[in-house]
Design the sequence.
């Protein structure tokens, strides 16, 4: 019997056991529900309080005080800084480190933004300009024509220039990015944990002894990883597919093509991320003999996933164009969660995707080798938790 | 058929197996006897390839045992283990397939063993819902379901009710009759004696005695039962070549060293009063075992 057949037999058992279980259906339904709730919650959260960072350059630095007061009066949170070089200011805006750069004289302010200027901030700045113009008009007391003064003041507004054309689909893209980040986080965490629990179940029930009398350790590990991976892939496809169809049918999304693309990228990155995490989860699981010990041994791995998830939400919604976001989204432990989010936003470049995939595959190969060794050595050891150092030692 | 040759395994300072060697021929029932920690389980795990020996090798049908050969072995581990949430029949089919049976053969064999071991009404029950005795039967079926060429059973009788013991004895005899070598360990020495063609006694990782029960008996003396109701305690204590095993209802059991003349024993017994019985018995395997491992427990 070929190893491939053995691996398939093991994988098929996992598939049948999981797909037949009620928990799979319940889990799928709950994921969809959580997903919807999550998006609704996030959109209100991000719509609310946030800090706008304004850089003042040249003569505009004079409005620092009035702008802060005006903003406070209007209830917007503004952090004002002075920028010496307008060019540096513009690149800070492109990187997402600044939200608006204000130049020019107080009576004729120019504003540079990435895509669009926050409406509240626009009103605050307009009001400052109008006060300034009014002050100038009042200074020339002779020939004061009230109508003309009002007209002049009314015409005085800030001049806004955007670095990039505002994207009308940005909000939809952001929503999709957050959804795919959440979905990938949940899938990787859930199915990675399942792999570990499966390994521990086989150890704690001692069934592993009769299995290893006929199956090689790597065949057992590979079968389990493949089987549970396929279950996870099926679930993600169903949840994602239902989401895309529902959103398109109910006209929540105006860009179903982008949504579909996001889902497909998500599925690819689920596979890559699952391969990355699953063998590590399995190796960690093989170190313990009882289910109660599983959580503690998995904590370092789940922490990395949680970190990727939290960073994904923060970075994608606030600093989508920052270079830090780009770098983190290419690194293997975070790429499976961050990069699909950036792909949904449309901010990831082709070469970033290529680099991320190459880095990912390289680390998957290395980790599989290492985790396979730990697993083969630890899976037959019963009793107290096996120290990692001992599992790595050459026999 | 099966040859275990100089197998050695060390765990740190503990020598679990020290040059363990024995042969089991086709259709032979080989009983592996020894105390807890004597090395039985380690030896069996090495035969099954679950553990790798530090030295020595295991050969089957003349060739070193490899992965393909082990696929056709049947194994009942000491620490029983099955998937707790898997149904009985599914579990057996799965294990048969892992051992290389095709789907149809696996289903047929699983159904057959379920019926044979009296599990038919439980075939769709999850293993964790079965009684312990029935779980043992499933475990046994798991060792047999792929029609193995060699059976290695670690303590197969522990936890079985008397009816299940009878079924297992019958199954083992049947397998042996079909030419399958059977190795099993047990603490129930009367069963081993009743069932086995040959016995290996292991102590501290070394095989200290081996052969048929008759061979073990030869040169081990005999057990003498003397029925002397009036004899005071300790009447036989000073006799040459005699060990007192115990006194029960006026009957004294004596272990007599090989080549000892029994007439002085009779004379000593008669000196205490009437002697109603004076019978030589074959020593039981339990007594031979105590001789071999050097523990005088009675």
Sequence:
């Amino acid at each position: 019997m070929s190893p491939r057949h053995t691996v398939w037999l093991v994988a098929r058992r996992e598939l049948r056991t999981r797909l037949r279980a009620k928990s799979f259906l319940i889990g799928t339904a709950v994921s969809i529900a959580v997903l919807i709730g999550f998006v609704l919650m996030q959109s209100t959260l991000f719509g609310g309080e946030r800090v706008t960072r304004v850089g003042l350059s040249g003569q505009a630095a004079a409005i620092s005080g009035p702008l802060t007061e005006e903003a406070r009066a209007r209830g917007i949170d503004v952090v004002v800084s002075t920028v010496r070089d307008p060019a540096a200011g513009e690149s800070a805006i492109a990187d997402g480190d600044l939200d608006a750069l204000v130049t020019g004289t107080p009576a004729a302010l120019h504003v540079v933004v990435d895509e669009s200027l926050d409406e509240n901030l626009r009103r605050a700045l307009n009001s400052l300009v109008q006060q300034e113009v009014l002050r100038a008009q009042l200074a020339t007391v002779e020939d004061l024509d009230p109508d003309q003064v009002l007209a002049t003041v009314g015409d005085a507004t800030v001049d806004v220039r955007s670095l990039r054309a505002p994207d009308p689909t940005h909000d939809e893209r952001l929503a999709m990015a957050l959804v795919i980040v959440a979905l990938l986080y949940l899938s990787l965490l859930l199915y990675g944990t399942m792999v570990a629990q499966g390994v521990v179940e086989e150890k704690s029930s001692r069934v592993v002894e009769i299995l290893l009398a006929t199956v090689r350790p790597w065949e057992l590990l590979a079968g389990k990883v493949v089987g549970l991976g396929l279950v996870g892939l099926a679930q993600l496809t169903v949840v994602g597919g239902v989401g895309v169809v529902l959103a398109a049918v109910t006209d929540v999304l105006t860009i179903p093509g982008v949504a579909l693309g996001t889902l497909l990228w998500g599925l690819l990155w689920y596979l890559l991320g699952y391969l990355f995490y699953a063998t590590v989860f399995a190796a960690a699981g093989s170190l313990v003999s009882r289910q109660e010990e599983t959580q503690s041994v998995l904590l370092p791995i789940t922490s990395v996933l949680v970190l990727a998830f939290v960073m994904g939400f923060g970075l994608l919604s606030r600093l989508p164009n920052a270079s830090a976001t780009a770098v983190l989204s290419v690194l293997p432990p975070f790429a499976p969660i961050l990069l699909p989010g950036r792909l949904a936003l449309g901010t990831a470049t082709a070469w970033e995707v290529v680099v991320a995939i190459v880095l990912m595959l390289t680390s998957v190969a290395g980790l599989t080798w290492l985790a396979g060794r730990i697993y083969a050595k630890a899976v037959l050891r019963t009793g107290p938790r096996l120290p990692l150092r001992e599992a790595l030692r050459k026999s | 058929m099966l040859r275990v040759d100089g197998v050695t395994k060390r765990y740190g300072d503990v020598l679990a197996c020290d040059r363990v060697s024995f042969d089991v021929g086709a259709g032979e029932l080989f009983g592996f006897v020894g105390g807890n920690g004597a090395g039985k389980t380690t030896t069996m795990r090495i035969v099954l390839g679950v553990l790798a020996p530090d030295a020595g090798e295991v050969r089957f049908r003349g060739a070193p045992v490899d992965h393909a050969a082990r696929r056709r072995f049947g194994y009942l581990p000491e620490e029983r283990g099955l998937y707790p949430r898997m149904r009985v029949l599914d579990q057996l089919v799965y294990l048969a397939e892992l051992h290389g049976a095709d789907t149809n053969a696996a289903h047929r064999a699983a159904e057959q063993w379920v019926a044979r071991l009296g599990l038919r009404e439980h075939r769709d029950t999850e293993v964790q819902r079965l009684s312990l005795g029935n779980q043992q039967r499933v475990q046994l079926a798991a060792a047999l379901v792929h029609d193995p060429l060699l059976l290695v059973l670690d303590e197969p009788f522990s936890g079985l009710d008397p009816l299940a013991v009878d079924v297992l004895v019958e199954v083992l005899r049947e397998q042996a009759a079909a030419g399958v070598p059977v190795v099993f360990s047990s603490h129930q020495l009367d069963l081993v004696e009743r069932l086995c063609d040959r016995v290996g006694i292991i102590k501290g990782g070394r095989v200290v005695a081996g052969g048929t029960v008759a061979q073990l008996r030869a040169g081990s003396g005999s057990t003498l039962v003397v029925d002397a109701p009036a004899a005071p305690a300790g009447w036989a204590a000073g006799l040459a070549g005699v060990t007192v095993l115990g006194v029960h209802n006026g009957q004294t059991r004596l272990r007599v060293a090989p080549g000892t003349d029994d007439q002085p024993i009779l004379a000593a017994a008669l000196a205490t009063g009437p002697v109603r019985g004076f019978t030589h018995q074959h020593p039981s395997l339990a007594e031979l075992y105590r001789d071999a491992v050097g523990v005088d427990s009675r």
